[in-house]
Every structure is written in C-alpha cells, then in structure tokens.
Amino acid sequence: MFKVEREGAVAVIRIDSPPVNALSFERWRSLPPLVRELEADASVAALVFTGLPHKHFCGGNDFKEFAALDAQGTSQGTAAVREGMRAVYQSALPAVAALHGAAMGSGFMLASACDMRIATPDARMALPEVKVGAFGGYSLISQLMSPGQARWMTYTGRPIDGTRAYQLGIVQELADTPDAVLAASIALAAEIGNLTRDRLDRRIKPVLNQLDRTALWDAYDIERLLAIDTMGKVN
To answer: Which residues form the signal peptide (predicted)?
Structure first.
C-alpha cells in the first residue's frame, strides 16, 4: 500500500507502486484509514507525500483496471479515488506534496488536495483523462489556478512542468533534484507543524478549508472568531 516513515513530527507517506506509482482502487481505499490513523497520533504534526525512491510522484490511476470495469465498478472505483483525496484535503494535518517526475491524472489531483507543493523544475503535471475519453480533476485543480488555466489543462490534457507550475502559483517552491524536493518538503512540513502546535494545533487547516468555500465577509468573520479564541488565551 503506502509506506510511512517518520521524520520527527512529520509523517512521510511514500507512494510505493513501481514503475510509475500508479494507484489501484485498493490503494485509494487504504488512504482514508491511513490518514485517520496518523491524525489519531498526537505526535504527528504534518504529512509529506512522495514518490521516491521511484522515478515518478504518481502516474495516476491504473487504466488497465479502469478498462476492465463495468458502470457499477467504475462508480465504485471513482468513489474510492474521491474519498482518498477528500481524506487528505479535509485532514486537520497540513500536507505537502513533493513532486518529481510525473504527477498525472489522479496523481496531480492528489498533489492538488495537499496544502502546498514543492517540485523539481522538470516535474510534469497534467490531466490526461481527456485523451482516453474520460474526465476529472477540474474542481480540485481550479482551487490552485485561474479558471482559464484549469480549463486549458482539462480540455487539452497537456502537461506543464515544475517551472511553469511555480510561475502559476501551483507550486510554492522549486528544488533541483528529487532528493532536494523531499528534503525541502519535510523541512516545510516541520516548520508548519512547529508553528501550529499548542493553541493552534490542528485548527488552522479546517478553518482555511472553510474560508476557501465561503463568501468574503462571512469568511472574514470565521477567521476573526478563531483569532479571538486563540488570542484570548495568551497569558
């Protein structure tokens, strides 16, 4: 399934499915309970997803598995993918995607479900589903980029590299090598974990998720309530 290693308060989740780290529906189904297990561990402050030591971050779904499914199987399989990504997105634990090689289809969506992304300049991200008569991912990636860019990626299936993703704000940092990307991702996750302990422990991300889905001034009031609650406890 997924391999988990600890770097202090950071849980490093390795997508271990060579050669391209494609994810079967079984693997997707294993992700929500894994995230819940890590959330239940008070010593875990943040998550990092990586495809190392393999060549790619994640090649997306196993299309051979898709091709063998009937309508009911497809519905169940896509639901497993949805719940896997939702578990990462809705987790109170901040998540960083360490991108190298390819992040294709649901692999790109998994990275988009994380809070932040660090990549090599030559990492490739795409939604190639349209090229095989499928569709998916727009609702997630449109949270990271302009609607026009998200539609361009959805309509064309063309990839963008890490440098372009950084220019668009999809990726927050670049690092030269996959190992450097992972190291930077762990460092960022550790920094976030250290800053959000104590009063803000596991409280910022749920509020940020709510703010992203809320009108401006309603969102401001939600943010203000958290500020009041935490500042009121300063000794």
So the answer is: none
